[in-house]
Amino acid sequence: MQRDLAEALATLERVILGKPRQLRLCIACLLARGHLLIEDVPGVGKTTLAHALARVFGLGWNRVQFTSDLLPADIVGVSVFDRATQQFEFRKGPVFTQLLLADEVNRASPRTQSALLEAMEERQVSADGQTYVLPEPFFVVATQNPKEQLGTFALPESQLDRFLMRVELGYPDAAHERELLRSGERRDLLERVPAHLDSVRVCQVQQLVRRVHVADALFDYLQRLLRATRERADVKLGLSPRAGQGLLRAAQSWALLAGREAVLPEDVQAVFPSVAAHRLLRRDPAAAADPGEFARELLRAVPVDA
Amino acid sequence: MTDRPAELRPLLWSTGVLLAAVALHVDRLPPWCTLVILGLAGWRLVLALRGRAPPGAVPRTAIGVLLLVSVAYQFSGVSGLAGGSALLAGMGALKLLETRSRRDHFVVIGVSLFLVLAACLDRQALPRLPLYVAVTWLVCTAMAIVGTPQVPLAARAATSLAGRALALSLPVAIALFVFFPRVQGQVWALPGSGAGVTGLSNEMSPGAISELTTAYDPAFRARFSGRPPPARELYWRGPVLQNFDGYTWRREPRSIYRQSPLRYLGTGYRYRITLEPHQRNWWFALDLPVASPDREVRFTWDYMLVSLQPVRQPVSYEARSHTVVRATEPLTPLQRRLALQLPPGRNPRSVALGRALRAQVADDAAFVQALLALFRDGGYAYTLTPPKLDLDSVDDFLFNTRRGFCGHYASAFATLARAAGLPARVVTGYQGGEWNPIGAYFIVRQSDAHAWAEVWLEERGWTRIDPTAVVAPERLDRGFFEALPGAVSTTDRMLREIGWLADARLAWDTLNTWWKDEVVEFDLGSQLSLLSRLGFDSPRLSQLGALLAGAVLAWLGWILLRFGRMERRRDADALARAWRRLGERLAAAGAGREAAEGPVDYAARLRATRPVLGERVGPLLEQYARLRYGPAPAAGEVAAFARAVRALALRESD
User: Fold this and answer.
1) Helix (H, G, I), strand (E, B) or coil at A42
2) Residue B210 and residue B408: Cα distance in Å, rounded?
3) Which of A28, A232, B149, B251 is the most buried (most CB within 10 A)?
């Protein structure tokens, strides 16, 4: 299992060049049963990443390009009248998949966004009084473009809480960009990517993550960290208990990826910026430029030992 | 192999507790045995202090064989409690000579616990209880100290740990005590020591005694349900003596006689007697018991209670008595002959006197009165220090010395009666008893031992006549102490006469009696009655067993959980201390950790920035991460980490 995960990571690194840390976070997020928000400018490989993830983990995937006229039914599905049977029949929407890439999620109307977010949270869809369970695993990779503000509806903080992690890809460094330019189209490469796991094994690994040992000492540290986010004067809204659960799950996932049987403070610290940055609501929006940097500063202020 | 100081500590403790446990037996052990044990322990300690190796296998085996043979010789075998304890104590001391590992110390400690157990089997007196508890506690403390060599436990911490462990085990002990199915009969009845025979014997030679011991030890206690009889009626019947050779009265050994049927008159008394062990076969009852209180006890033809086994442990029994009885049939010829038997040619003057006195009166009743008048008016005195008598003891007493105690008067009375053809015998037992108002029972002591006479009167049957009563009436009314000033030691007198001391003594006796009745004597009967009070009527053995096992298992589980938690907390503390120490050392070496830095990141940073130092402490830091954040560490891992940290020497140049 450990070897499969390592190989999956290696394969992803061949596709997405120079971003090992982000890739690891993405996998951790998947294994922690969370959903992922990738925030970045277009053209850095968000779609390629989602596609590669689906391939490597052997998951079925769908892609929905969010636009301002996208309706909830376009995502969850719609009931149509079947003349032959004289009955309404539910046509499942693209959400019925294992990995859903919701591209540029901030372009859709809040109504459509909330339909997606509800499906993410509930892992099921209700239509016409019927409940349809989504497949397992169910992993949403949503992207949004922070620089483009015109005609978009930025996700409110309460909705951001539904994403376990927010990851920024960023531009590749010079060496990797050179290699990218040299090797040509990534999509061709994608076709040849082997599947290292399948949906059943992904579910098994997700179960394993829950069993990674968490010592009392680590709970202490985690709680100190959560308290620190709530007690700071420059934070309007600290981390919620749900965020705390997510942080723990993500840290467990990270520890599993590192081949450890117990969570260390380092694991918490590794995932903390990605888990916390988009949830921390600061008093002065203009204060610090980079929310990730702010999260790291918070980490430095909390001692590992009581 | 030499002992380092660290290994001296367990040795000192195991030696100490062994000696403490041996001390419980010291008055039972032969002196040579105690000396050998002390010698072996001293030898081991000297060797350890000088860092020398203990003796080899050959001398040890030789000592062991010698010890075994000596003990077997001394106690003629090693199966008895005393012999077994002596052997165990000696072997425990010998084991000290080969204590190297923790396991060896545990063996010595186990031996010590067994010695405490043996002491409990030997003696269960209440005053010894604190002693047993103290030694057990000490032994458990040693166990705690020996059992945790990596984390040297301070003596105080070990004491408190042992105390808590013992306190936790108390409910189990109580449950086992109360609910463990008692086997009828004494499971623990081991061959007794045979020493210390006290109480009445089966013969009486008043002439041979020049000083009566005034033993103050209790013989038994009697608790009446209902009103107790008046003090004058408190005659506790013991051995009946019928054979007289002119000097010594003995029990009739043959049991060819039949018990004469009796009619019990007057009020009956119900009471419970708790009899102290006296190594003889008789049980005592108020004159005259109605029936045998126990299947194992015979109610003999001369109305004695004789048990099949000598009384070696305290026994407690319910008895019923009537103080007024009548015979319904005439004395059988066989019994009459026995009760008239006198040694031919002995005590001739007494025999003549008896016959002469009988000739002066009309009937037996008047003759008895005449004999009593003789004792009352004949210039006789009661004393506990009578002169010795010659072989015709009754003649010597009646006509020469005229001073004696109950035995003299009973003997003389019976002889005179027999001479005159009136069937008579001597009854020994106890008279009176001290009333304990706190516990509402009588304490009958060895000093209350008494002898009186019984004569056969037609129409009445055997009738108790106490000639001592006419000589020293106060002996009956007020008991022995008032009767004879100076006969008792000052301490005993003080105990009786100083008010609060007397109260304290009675209170203590009450407590002691409770302890004996309710704890030491807790048997199947008491168990069943307690269970029925708790609502278990006629419980089946299997149910009882299941109940007990379930309760004990649950309790043990709880203890395990608790101790596990305690252990983890202690480990966590030790780990935190070692971690702080490591942090201080690294900071002193100029490579301090940042507060928000995890141990593994720290190790990685040190490896990158201070390669030499990083290589040395990296594994330690990673071990710490495992211990602190991993699943529960194995026993000793934390201690090993602490040791490694202590052993770490760092220089700034690393």
Assistant:
1) coil
2) 11
3) A28
Domain spans, chain A: 19-196, 211-301
* Per annotation, catalytic residue among B302, B364, B392, B466: B466
Taking CB atoms and an 8 Å cutoff, what residues of chain A touch B597?
304
A259 touches chain B (CB under 8 A): no
Q: Which residues contact A13 (CB under 8 A, 6 or more apart)?
A: A19, A20, A23
Class of domain A19-196 (CATH, top level) = alpha beta
Q: Is B450 a catalytic residue?
A: yes
Residue A168 · residue A39 · CB < 8 Å: yes
Q: For the segment B483-529, what is each residue's pLDDT rounded down to a tens digit?
A: 444 445 566 666 666 777 778 878 888 888 788 777 777 766 677 77
Provide the number of CB pairs (under 8 Å) joining chain A to chain B.
48
Judging by beta carbons within 10 Å of its beta carbon (0-12, 13-18, 19+), is residue A185 exposed, middle or buried?
Answer: exposed
- Which of A212, A264, A268, A271 is most worth mutating to test chain B (most B CB atoms within 10 A of its CB)? A264
Examine the pLDDT at B115 and tell me if it is beyond 90.
Answer: yes
Q: Which residues of B touch A261 (CB under 8 A)?
A: 630-631
**Rounded distance between C-alpha atoms, residue B235 and residue B429, angstroms:** 7
Query: Which of these is catalytic: B3, B406, B448, B517?
Result: B406
- Dihedral angle at the C-alpha atoms of B131, B132, B138, B139, nearest 10 degrees? 150
Let me know how long chain A is.
306
Ranges B442-451, B470-479, B547-556, B559-568: which has the least confidence: B470-479
The residues of B whose Cβ lies within 8 A of any Cβ of A are 572, 576, 579, 594-601, 625-626, 628-631
Give the residue among B93, B85, B112, B101 at the shortest CA–CA distance from B27. Answer: B85
A contact test, residue of B629, B637, B638 with most A CBs within 10 A:
B629
Domain-by-domain residue ranges, chain B?
5-147, 203-499, 557-647
CA distance A249 to A213: 11
Residues contacting B210, CB < 8 A, separation 6+:
B385, B386, B387, B388
Query: What values do phi and psi take at B480, rounded to 5?
Result: -70, -35
Residues of B in contact with A303 (CB under 8 A): 595-596
The active-site residue out of B33, B450, B509, B571 is: B450
Give the ipTM of the model, two decimals please: 0.83
* SS3 per residue for B536-592: CCCCCHHHHHHHHHHHHHHHHHHHHHHHHHHHHHHHHHHHHHHHHHHHHHHHHCCCC
Tell me which chain A residue has its CA closest to the CA of residue B576: A305
**pLDDT tens digits, residue range A42-64?**
777 888 888 888 888 888 888 88
Q: CB-CB: which of B579, B601, B629 is closest to A263? A: B629
pLDDT digits (tens, 9 = 90+) for B453-493: 999 988 888 999 988 888 877 765 554 444 444 445 566 66
B72, B83 contact by CB (below 8 A) = yes
B322 catalytic residue (yes or no): no
Q: Give the separation between CA B246 and CA B252, rounded to whole angstroms.
A: 15
Q: How confident is the model at residue B41 (pLDDT cuts 50, 70, 90)?
A: very high
Considering the four listed CATH numbers 2.40.30.20, 1.10.3720.10, 1.10.8.80, 3.40.50.2030, the one that applies to the domain covering A211-301 is 1.10.8.80
pLDDT digits (tens, 9 = 90+) for B266-318: 888 999 998 888 778 889 999 889 888 888 888 888 888 988 888 877 788 88
Contacting residues of A for B631, CB less than 8 Å apart: 213, 215, 261-262
Chain A residues with CB under 8 Å of B599 CB are: 264-265, 304
Number of Cβ within a 10 Å radius of residue B223? 18
Nearest to B629 among A264, A300, A302 (CB): A264
How many C-beta neighbours within 10 Å does residue A180 have?
15
